[in-house]
Amino acid sequence: MGVFVHSPSLADPTYRSSSITLRPIDLPLQIGQLRQLGVDFATLHTTLTALDAQPGSELLQQLGPKILAIHELTGRTLVHLSALDGSQYTAVPGSRSSLETLGEVVASACFAAWQLARAVADNPLEASAFAGGPPADDAVMRQARHAEAAPLLAESLTTAAHHLNLCATCCHYTASGITRDLERTASTSAGRPVPHRLSAAQYQALRSLAQGGATMQTRGRGSTMVCTPDLTVITTATFQSLDKRGLLHLDTSVPLYRGTEHHRHPRGAPRTGPSLSGQGCGHRPVRRGSNSDEGAASMTEFNPDERVLVSPRHLAGSGMSRFNDVIGPLSHLFNWRFEHNPSTGRIEIDSPCGSVFLDFEPDRRDDIWWELRHHEPYWTARFSRQTPAEALAAVTQVLPQLLGDTRHADRIPLTTNTLAQSAELNGWTVVRVGRITLFTSPDEHCHLRHERDAEVPWRFEHSLYESFDTEWSATFTRDTPERLVAQFFAHLASDEPVERAVKELPFLVQHSDSALITPVSGAAVNPHAHHAVAQAARAHAGRQPRR
User: Fold this and answer.
1) How far apart are CA 450 and CA 438, in angstroms?
2) Fewer Cβ in 10 A, N or C end of the chain?
């Protein structure tokens, strides 16, 4: 469940957390300056990519100012990081992610500067030798030295440019994150917390309940599922939040036994029964996976930078380190037009034929970061911020095939499985009522709702305990090729783990028993084999009879 901090005022300098006084700073000013910092990183990236990496003294004259500029931007980043650290912003849920992202900006910027410094060292320069030493290079030797240095210089400049581009993206990401965090924890001018508005999930749940109530059922592994007659799935956390607001009515005329149902309806009369006692979020340190969920004693904690394998995929978060997997093949393998706006972080990628457009826009207020559009016929696919990059990349990389460009079809396979086949293969349940089919993941945190002939026939929704940083959605409008939806679903539902740095995982996922997290390094066997053994042990434990 999303956690909100209610303080007398987040701008109040007397606010204390763990006996530490939080310094008041101008957060809107910080947001604006971070956006400008992102623009400056992007500008430096552009000028660096435009350099002629020919060895010699001219290259040295160009590299020097670039190194100094990177150090200046690194210093500005450190100033922002120091200002935010210990400020009132650290009391806002989600602030840790923003501070860690700025820390990564510092690391990436320093690495970019080091790459340029390496280029300075590798760049052959002309000068006289000392007396009695080797003679000055002749033209042939000079040409050979330049030919040897050229690929080293090109590699250093390319790597430095990549990290500067990453810095620019992270600065915009941080600015958007701070804005989003503040909106979620906004306070009144008098310092009193604003009453919670209904989230999109809560509002949709209330609308569905108003049309016919819902049933609450206890399922196979003791989990609770709330479902309306039109197969809208309502998480227990959403259900509890509406109940706490007094918006629901409990029908206690039916006793609650395993396999029986309780009915709740939108509030029309005072409640006559107790509130639902919901499932809480199990908090524990991030642990190394073992061959059994019972083996916590043999686990050790992960470091934030440690690489891990995570399953199921829908819990792994977006994985920003996989960002290039989404857009890279389109521009590098298929020559799609690429345009980046440094001032906003927006990226536009268009197909050569002009019929498909992919936009990345991290500043959208509706949290939709990716939008894919096709013309004639017109259809749209939208993906929110935490959509796993692997499933998104599976969609973007097969777009050229759907347009007839099969040059790399052997490297980018298009699934032949239907939605139902992928669901059966990966243990998702399928329920059909009339025109609606509902696919539910084994842990019941992720759902695909397919409604034939609707304007938006396919809707993917995910949430872990209604936490804002674990919620994501993906929608495909009418006329979207079903093979494209099947491609997304096949790579989302797959039980193959995905790789992440621990700090990339949503915070509640790190501390949730729903996710299986195992190390990439340090395992006695291949990391994927180790993860598969842990998956098998968990599945076996889930089948054991409860005593």
Assistant:
1) 6
2) C
